[in-house]
Amino acid sequence: MSNLVRHPVIGVILGLAALGLIYRLWTNPSALFLTLMITALFAVGLYFLLTRVVLPRRSGGMDSNYRKALKQSKARQKQQEAAKQRRRKKKSHLKVIDGQRKK
Question: What's the predicted TM-score (pTM) here?
């Protein structure tokens, strides 16, 4: 945040905005609050429009492709687990010979 304020153009814009808000609050506070309410309602409406209507249409194909890949991955994992269970241990080709040792 401090890097943004250090740039002179941004600092001037933020300073003028703060000066304008203070002036508007001093001269006509009801108009300021009305403007802020209208801006907030517009922002909420735009957010709702983008998140519920526009963006789901754009990402619909990716979600279905992701679901398809996830389904394939789970099926492949089940096949690998089943293959592991089917494998049996091979009998050892070594044989223990009982011998008699002298002490």
Answer: 0.43
